[in-house]
Amino acid sequence: MRLFDLSLRYKMPLWGGGLILVTALTLSASFMWQAWDNLHHDLQKNAEDLGRSTARALFPLMLHDEVWQAFETVSLSLTSSDNAAQTESLVVFDNQLRVYISSDSQAHRLTQPMASLDAEFAALAAVMPKAPDADVFVRDASDASHIYVALPIASGGVRLGTLVVAYHKSVLWQRFSQLLRNAVGITLLTLAILLPITAYWGRRMMRPMQWITERIRRVGTADDASVNPSLYPYGDEVGLLYAAYLDMRVKLQQKDALEKEVIESERMAAVGRLTASIAHEINNPLGGMLNAISTLKRHGNPDLVTQKTVSLLERGLSHIRETVAALLVQSKVKSRPLNASDFDDVQVLVAHALKKQGTRLDWSVSITSDTTLPSTLVRQVLINLLLNAITAAGAAGQVNLMAQTDEKQLKVVIDNTGQPMSSDQLGRLFEPFTSFTNEGNGLGLWICYQIVTQLGGRIQADSNAERTRFTVTLPLIPTDEPPTPQNLPD
Asked: Which of 146, 358, 368, 480 is geometrically suited to a Cys-Cys bond with 395, CB 3.0 to 4.6 A?
């Protein structure tokens, strides 16, 4: 992985730490260069001050040739000076550049020519000015191990000799190395403080970016989650990004909802075209069978069992005709009011499925009088839900039905044991052509949803490890309210 492909939560601390490191090293190098220059300048300044005071004291002594007193003066200047530890030697030369006196008499013998002392003194002798009015001369050659400061011993235009103050360059390096150690220590201490702070703040600043990046990556998936605006309440670029994400998420949800509505409308249109094409083929034979049953009831003389069976067949065929009519969007379904006998018919109609599956049914209906709800549509809802519950409960399963009314509504609760439904299944229960078994065409629950919606009611489903429950609530139309398109189903 390339460096630039790393996450910003790593790159920010790295770039910030690198910038701090480069800045610290640059400043340290600049300070050390300035410190070296200052040390060098201070050393020369101290040498000049020492040389000037000593040269003034040496002039009358050399004028009267007081060699011993001159030696004492040089020795005293070297020992009493604050820079005595830095000064290696003081050497006095006459105008012929011969040693007059020296603080190190063993290394510099009297009357010994300067050029014969060593190579560095020979180089100094070749370039040193000898005029009476010559100023201080400093030789600091890069190939030399000493720094030489030469001052004329002169007064009134008369030059008697030259005083040379010699320093070893190791003195500079000793003082500079101490400053370097201090600077390195301070720099490392500063980096030890700033780098963790930079890493912390870099990761902290990138945490909102990382969080919003993860949310954007999950947009459109099942793991998509909303953003709490209080997580980043600031108005900077990150805050604007949060606001843009919220706006984008709302628009995507609206788009998804619109797409679902379009898909559902297309499915409903397909169902409408399908039911319209088969309604004619179904209603014609149904009408003939109903006419035959009506003729049998008027002109026949059946026994009680046959009469009950014929009545059940008539209600069932009427149910089929009205159910087909209910699937047609523009149809007007007319039905008698729902009463307790309709629940008895439903119980009889699902009895065969109960026996075939070996499922137990617990029946509790508290309806004592006619309601204002259309019996055909409610029966269709009850039969679909009960047959689904019986199939889901399976052999030795349990199905419970509870129905009751009050002044405002009819409430029906149907639950069953068996395999629970997943959240994905619960979310798609009432979509057309959605079936979770190998049986059926996926229209039963969709028809139930359409009927309940037409009647102004609600149908809800929930499922857990123990039970799957459907709850249907249908509002009752007041008996003194005239029927209108708003309170009668289409």
From this structure: 358
